[in-house]
Amino acid sequence: MAALSILAFDGILVVALPKAIDDRTMDRLAEEVGNRLVELAASAVLIDVSLAQIIDSFLGRVLAGLAATSRLLGAEVVLVGVRPEVAITMVELGLDLGNIATALTIEQGLANIRARLGGSS
């Protein structure tokens, strides 16, 4: 089972998906992010998928569910680091991540979060 990387700073959770991720790890990640959101009263979640080799239909559903849960807990969500080959695969699979905001880099994702929160973070 892959190790989880969830960092918190300035009211934002930064979640980095590992290179190889299995279904159990994704389920554990979704639960842990929810717990940390409540524990820290975080206002946003930035999910970095730059290391992910593939985003399949299960992972896509978990990411969409994680975003929906985060929004219900009052947090903005931004997905960063989607590589071109991963994006192509996601489109070919017809994956719908809902209304998850995206950005190319962590820096752009943080700027997006700050703009969405009115510069308060």
From TrEMBL:
Residues 2-113 form the STAS domain. Pfam families: STAS. It comes from the Bacteria. PROSITE patterns: STAS. This is STAS domain-containing protein.
